[in-house]
Every structure is written in structure tokens, then in C-alpha cells.
Amino acid sequence: MSFKVVILNSAKLDLNELGDYVVTGFSQSVWRKTSGQLKRALGVLVVSPQAGAVLSEIEMLNLNEYRQVICGMNRIIYEIRQQSCSFMQSWIYFGT
Fold first, then answer.
1. Within a domain: residue 96?
2. How far is 73 from 32, CA to CA, in rounded Å?
3. N or C: which end of the chain has fewer CB within 10 A?
């Protein structure tokens, strides 16, 4: 079963800022690779939204509808609601 994907305006802004950052700091080809990875990750989540990990920051509150996927150096945070996934933020993730 496929889930409806909703990308919030705040996430769209994050993606635009990420694209500007990557193109300016690296290159257009790096951005093409990064955006391709993000699109593939979103494609997996449309079919299997439970594939993402529960956010460790709120795991103890038992809010399992909030999940994350690490995609390269990026962190995609989303919420599962019945038959839809709302992508709230895409953050640059630094660390291991």
C-alpha cells in the first residue's frame, strides 16, 4: 500500500536552502547526486514509512509516528498519519 506524501512548506524551504548550500559550497553535480539520494529515500518511505527510525530525542515519550531517515549527510524527519507521510524537515546532519 502506498502512502500519500505531504511535503510541508518548511521542508521545501529547507530543501531549497540545502540546494543553495551544496551548489555554492561544492558543485551542481554534488547537488544532483544529493537530491537523487533524497528522492530515492522518499520513494522508499512512500511504500514503507515504518522503515525510518523513531526519533531518539522523543522515543521515551512513545511518539512513534515521528521518524527519521539518514540520507548521506542529511536527516529527513517525517510524521506518519494514517495513510499519509508528512515530511517536516530536511536537515544537514553532521556527525557519526
1. no
2. 14
3. C
Mean pLDDT of the chain: 81
Residue 66 lies in a domain: yes
Q: Give pLDDT, residue 87.
A: 59
Q: Mind listing the pLDDT tens digit for each residue in 55-81?
A: 888 878 888 888 899 998 898 888 887
- Judge whether 29 lies within some domain: yes
Rounded CA-CA distance 74/34 in Å is 9
- β-sheet bridge partners, residue 70: 75
- Helices 28-47 and 9-25 cross at an angle (nearest 10°) of 150
Q: What is the CATH number of the domain that holds 11?
A: 3.30.2310.20
Q: Residue 67 corresponds to which amino acid? A: R
- pTM for the model stands at 0.75
